[in-house]
Amino acid sequence: MTAWVAPVQSAVHGEAVLKLACRHEEAQDEAAGLVAWQGTGAVRLYHAEQVDRQTSVLLLERCKPGGWLLHEPPRRQDEVIAGLLTRLWIEPPAQPSFRPLSALCDLWAEGCERWAQGHRAKAGNDAKQLDPGLIRAGIELFRALPREAAEQRLLCTDLHAENVLAAQREPWLMVDPKPYVGDPSFDLLQHILNGAARFGREPRALCQRMAALTGQDPRRVELWLFARCVAGAPHWPELLEVAAAVAPAQRRSPTGVGSSASANSVATSATRSPAPVDCTPSSSITVQ
Fold first, then answer.
1. What is the pTM of this model?
2. Which of 36, 44, 149, 198 has its CA 20 to 30 A from that of 243?
3. Which residues of 240-278 are buried (b: 16+ CB within 10 A; e: fewer)?
């Protein structure tokens, strides 16, 4: 979606991967994060260069055989993701300074607010309009949770089974992090969301399983999931069904989006192809 990658041969490092990427907000600190992790559970960074305001280049360790963790059984995926996360959650280094998770959450919350306002304006008196109380509670919680976390760790924020590859140096290595500093419970969400069929069918059970595997508070993971589903609704509206199912008791409502998740709608919508991003580099690049 935002990068072009290819296997290359490096005179210094041997087999490697070249990543030519569109610079965007969430991936701003990818190179710095890989340096901080130093190859522990993650691919090694050999070289990074900011070509211009839109384009960056990374020279990365190549994973061989490189198969996706996605091809493993779901419960095995849970175990590998949990094992990687508990190793990747390191104390944030003093330098460089990574952005707080609250900055990312504020960005998503603002986008959700704009989307909800636009949706209500178009819906008018339509009975199927969004539940404003559910949206408001989710956005408020999404802003509050990162600010009240007792623990601060370096986070991947986008760790899921398609960002974990089979390798030789370690059985599995993480690629494509989007580092922020904040509550480690947040880092469980992308894996939970990517398991669309299980997630739509049993969101609470999946929260409890991942919390147990990583030593996190299952109630806090569930609160994060509720808030994240609301914040993600502009791009995946069916998430509101799951948000209603896992909402704190005072936010459950028989009206609006409903009170239980639909596994079929969540699983089906997960297969939709997002709109393409124009990643044409703005200048020519010569790789030495």
1. 0.85
2. 149
3. bbbbbbbbeeebeeeebbeeebbbebbbebbeeeeeeee
